[in-house]
UniProtKB/TrEMBL annotation, chain A:
Residues 158-242 form the YtkA-like domain. It holds the Pfam family YtkA. It comes from Pararcticibacter amylolyticus. This is YtkA-like domain-containing protein. The lineage of its organism: Bacteria, Pseudomonadati, Bacteroidota, Sphingobacteriia, Sphingobacteriales.
Automatic annotation (TrEMBL), chain B:
It is found in: Cell outer membrane. Keywords: Cell outer membrane, Membrane, Signal, TonB box, Transmembrane, Transmembrane beta strand, Transport. One of its GO terms (biological process) is siderophore transmembrane transport. Residues 215-642 form the TonB-dependent receptor-like beta-barrel domain. Residues 50-145 form the TonB-dependent receptor plug domain. GO terms for cellular component: cell outer membrane. This is Uncharacterized protein.
Length: 261, 675
């Protein structure tokens, strides 16, 4: 009976909220436009993100394309190339190349910005649409104090591994999905996903020194993504301790990421 | 005959409520009993005048102290205030604590606020104990329950007003109490209001000096009114508000900033004395608000400041019907339901990092509906049967999205739990002659895990130093109880003996969890509540009273319990042998009493499993004297002086958490004026 009431109540609220949406201008997504540019051939390129600011972290980045007539272009080939210009040298960072999504009507990809914009250097994101490049100057914010959403670790095999947190994007007390991207530095411009590592995992609250039970170590699920579970028993600052192994060889003993909520 | 027995049994019982009803009308076997069952605090009539005087000056003592003197009851002590009652060493969820049949649950995760801390002796008429689960009409449990019976205003033929004021002072801790009460009554309306304020500083233990953080401050106000709605019926309203502040708990890591309770009830009463029918229907609500405080502790003892508030909200209703079919046959039925919502949280403030928040009790809610049936019938002058049954359906769940999410990380599967609990009792008493009463009872008790045992989220338990995690899938704890009693009395001598045993199944206890890190800084590890296959508690109570002269009474009350788990290991919080011996002189206006309270040592303890260490024995001598002084313009003035712990012994008892020494010598003065 009570459940029936709940269902009724929820369906009512659902209807109300749906009808509200219908009144607003149709937009299949709720992304924030952060920049816009036009290619040489006149294609307008909108750059979108989940937040106003891009930061030192794994950032989902979206692109919307329109031709001169204002029609949506759905079948272009789009690639991202992040470039950090550090005056004496340039480097890139790990990227997930975009693919078109018919639900959001956007090209969806991601970029891991590994350091903030500032005196050290500045970031540009080159978006290539069907071989036509447009370049956006992007400002990358420092991650909040006591957080570290991406970090690079020197492996025992002399390779550099970048570990970036994808999930939880909005951590809560209790069980959270954990998703990481692990990439390897091939050279300054190429950071391919690292597949097939074994990851040991334990969270800790540094200000108290305790951990939490029932965590699930992330396992590789494709394209360098590793998914598991993390249990946050309370809000506050949490450190995710990760041990990266190739077979039984330990590559990185204590890779760690920090988050706070 | 057989059919009659079975019918009687099926009709269930509640000996105590039934007995309670009769009490108001005068004499009753229960009330005359020396051992247990009914502790009169504010006698309406009956008893001798000097005894009443003695009681009246007890109104200034703490409910805790009255309970502590009650045979069978031992108090778990965490500070100088708000001790937790245990009955035959059964405690917490194993017994039910109710106020006039109302369910109420403390809000503190550290058990700082047992129900008894929210009522004052001046709210109470009596404390009723039920020792068998099926006899208890107020809830399911292993060992019956303690019902705090509120004082009742009563109608009077002519308009009457009476009032009293009193105050007391205790040298140890400079404790001070002041109270006042008023009664107004006429033929169709009666009202009674009472208030008390008490304050105490830190007390001193004999040779250990001042015990820091043993202070308290509180007030309690209550109002109760009845309005006649017919020749046989009346409406009654009760309201109690109790607020404590700045209460120290020397045995715990935190104190209490405030502990507040509001208790309200409205009831309809129908009494047909000719047809021996009593029918009561009541609706009630209570809210308990509790906040712990570590800000007054020295900085070096606090690793990190934290806030730990908690609330408990209960609403319920019951309807109970008692019918005296026949002078020798008394039936009672009760339908009872309640809902209890708990919430407790902890926020820690680490230096230089963001606050850390979690629920220690993430919104557990219990809904329950119970049915009680009880019967008392005498086959002949000598043989009386008391069958009783209590059935309860209980549903526990977690309220709130955040709360559920938090627990999703700890417990797998469904968090909700439903249970059907049944408590059955059969008591027999046999009076071969008027001097002798022999009794036996067999019962089956069962209780649900408490909401703390089901859903605790790193709740620190100071006695063993572990963080506790609940277990939503705990099986109900049950027990088979057997007891025998014998009593002899003649005109100036009375002796009573009880022997009892509880054989538990699925006894709820903590078990160490490997690989869990502690939440509380300094905790030894993490334990989870589990069911032990079995455990047992057994013991005896023995009491004597002898009046060698009209004015002199000697009495001795002795209790002993012992408990073992399935591996033969001593259970925790089991009181050792205790004997209270007293001599009382009571003349017309004067009463003098000397008493010794002796606890033997307790060495039947277990450190590795339950974290207990042995406790040495102790003996304390107390003296008291009271006198009623006739004065002008008032009915009477009562004065009493008490000297507790005469020889200033340094001592503590086995149920004193952390073995903090109890108060040394304490001189108490009390006066009350009756207008
Ligand atoms: Cu913590
Ligand atoms: Cu508390």
């Amino acid at each position: 009976m009570k459940h029936a009431i709940h269902i009724l109540l929820f369906s009512f609220l659902f209807l109300v909220s749906c009808s509200k949406d219908d009144n607003e201008p149709a937009s299949p997504h709720s992304k924030i436009k952060i920049a816009e540019a036009v290619t040489a051939s006149g294609i307008s390129v909108s750059l979108l993100a989940d937040q106003n600011d891009l930061s030192v972290a794994y950032n989902k980045i979206y692109v919307g394309l329109k031709n001169k007539a204002g029609a949506e272009i759905k079948n272009a080939t789009v690639t991202y190339t992040p470039i950090m210009d550090m005056h004496t040298m340039q480097h890139s960072s790990p990227v997930e190349q975009p693919a078109y999504s018919s639900t959001t009507e956007l090209y969806e990809g991601a970029v891991v910005f590994s350091m903030p914009s500032g005196d050290m250097g500045s970031w540009q994101l080159k978006v290539t649409v069907n071989n036509e490049p447009v370049t956006f100057d992007v400002s990358i914010k420092q991650a909040a104090a006591n957080t570290k959403y991406t970090a690079t670790f020197k492996g025992s095999d002399d390779q550099s591994y970048t570990v970036s947190l994808i999930q939880p994007a909005a951590p809560k007390i209790g069980m959270n999905d954990l998703e990481l991207l692990i990439s390897k530095r091939q050279d300054m411009m190429n950071f391919p996903p690292e597949e097939g590592l074994t990851v040991e995992f334990s969270p800790e609250m540094p200000s108290m020194g305790h951990g939490s039970p029932n965590n699930v170590a992330p396992i590789h699920t494709g394209r360098g993504h590793y998914t598991g579970k993390v249990n946050f028993t309370m809000t506050g600052d949490w450190r995710l301790h990760l041990k990266l192994m190739k077979g039984s060889t330990v590559i990185v003993e204590d890779a760690s990421l920090d988050l706070m909520f | 005959m057989k059919a009659f027995l079975i019918t009687g049994f099926c009709l269930l019982v509640i000996a105590l409520p039934a007995a309670g009803q009769q009490d108001t009308s005068g004499t009753n076997a229960v009330q005359r009993s020396l051992l247990l069952k009914q502790v009169i605090i504010s006698p309406a009539k009956s008893v001798s005048r000097s005894e009443r005087d003695l009681h009246q000056n007890h109104l200034m003592s703490l409910t805790d102290k009255i309970l502590e003197r009650t045979p069978g009851i031992t108090m778990i002590r965490r500070g100088n205030f708000a001790m937790e009652p245990a009955f035959r060493s059964l405690n917490n969820g194993q017994i039910t604590l109710t106020i006039e049949g109302m369910r109420i649950f403390g809000a503190c995760t550290d058990r700082m606020d047992p129900v008894s801390s929210y009522i004052e002796p001046n709210n109470l008429e009596s404390i009723a104990l039920t020792e068998s689960p099926g006899e208890n009409a107020n809830g399911s449990g292993i060992g019956g329950g303690i019902d705090f019976k509120l004082k009742q205003p009563s109608f009077s033929e002519s308009a009457k007003t009476s009032a009293m004021i009193g105050s007391g002072y205790e040298t140890n801790g400079s404790a001070f109490q002041t109270l006042a009460g008023i009664n107004v009554s006429n033929r169709s309306f009666a009202l009674q209001a009472n208030g008390i304020f008490r304050r105490s500083g830190n007390y001193r233990a004999a040779n250990r000096g001042e015990i820091s953080f043993s202070q308290y401050r509180k007030w309690n106000g209550s109002i109760s009114a009845i309005v006649k709605t017919g020749g046989k019926s009346f409406l009654k309203g009760d309201y109690i508000q109790d607020e404590g502040f700045d209460i120290g708990y020397p045995a715990l890591t935190m104190d209490v900033a405030f502990a507040k309770a509001r208790i309200a009830a409205l009831s309809y009463h129908y009494r047909d004395t000719q047809r021996h029918i009593t029918w009561e229907t009541k609706g009630y609500y209570n809210f308990v608000d509790h906040a712990m405080d570590d800000t007054k502790r020295p900085a070096e003892t606090i690793s990190m400041h934290m806030d730990m508030p908690g609330t408990s909200r209960t609403f319920g209703a019951f309807s109970s019907l008692a019918i005296g079919i026949h002078p020798k046959h008394h039936l009672e039925a009760k339908l009872d339901g309640f809902r209890n919502e708990l919430s407790a949280e902890m926020t820690m403030y680490p230096p230089g990092a963001s606050p850390m928040f979690m629920y220690t009790l993430a919104g557990p809610v219990r809904n329950s509906i119970g049915l009680s049936l009880s019967d008392i019938f005498s086959i002949n002058e000598k043989l009386t049967f008391r069958p009783g049954l209590w059935m309860e359906y209980m549903h526990d769940d977690i309220h709130g999205k955040e709360e559920r999410e938090q627990l999703s990380g700890m417990f797998e599967g469904n968090l909700a739990e439903s249970r059907l609990l049944s408590n059955i009792n059969l008591g027999i008493s046999y009076n071969p002659t008027t001097e002798w009463t022999l009794g036996a009872s067999a019962s089956r008790g069962a209780r649900a895990s408490t909401l703390q045992e089901s859903y605790a989220f790193y709740i620190y338990n100071r006695p063993d130093g572990y963080d506790y995690i609940g277990n939503p899938s705990l099986k109900q704890e049950s027990s088979y109880n057997l007891s025998c009693s014998g009593a002899y009395h003649n005109s100036n001598f009375r002796a009573e003996l009880n022997v009892f045993s509880y054989f538990f199944r699925n006894y709820i206890a903590g078990r160490m969890l490997q690989g869990y890190s502690t939440m509380t800084i300094g905790a030894m590890g993490v334990k989870q509540y589990i069911n032990l296959p079995s455990a047992k508690i057994y013991g005896t109570e023995f009491a004597l009273r002898w009046a060698p002269a009209k004015t002199v009474t000697l009495s001795s009350v002795n209790t002993f319990t012992r408990g073992e788990d399935n591996e033969g290991i001593a259970l925790p919080l089991i009181a050792p042998f205790k004997t209270v011996n007293s001599i009382m002189y009571s003349a017309k206006k004067t009463i003098i009493q000397a008493e010794t309270v002796t606890n033997s040592s307790q060495s039947h303890v277990d450190m590795p499993k339950y974290g207990e260490t042995p406790t040495p024995g102790s003996t304390v001598v107390n003296l008291s004297a009271g006198r009623s002084v006739p004065i002008k313009l008032a009915k009477s003035l009562k004065v009493s002086v008490l000297l507790e712990n005469v020889f200033n012994r340094s001592y503590y008892q086995h149920l004193d958490i952390l073995k903090i020494p109890r108060p040394g010598r304490n001189l108490i003065f009390r006066t009350s004026l009756f207008l």
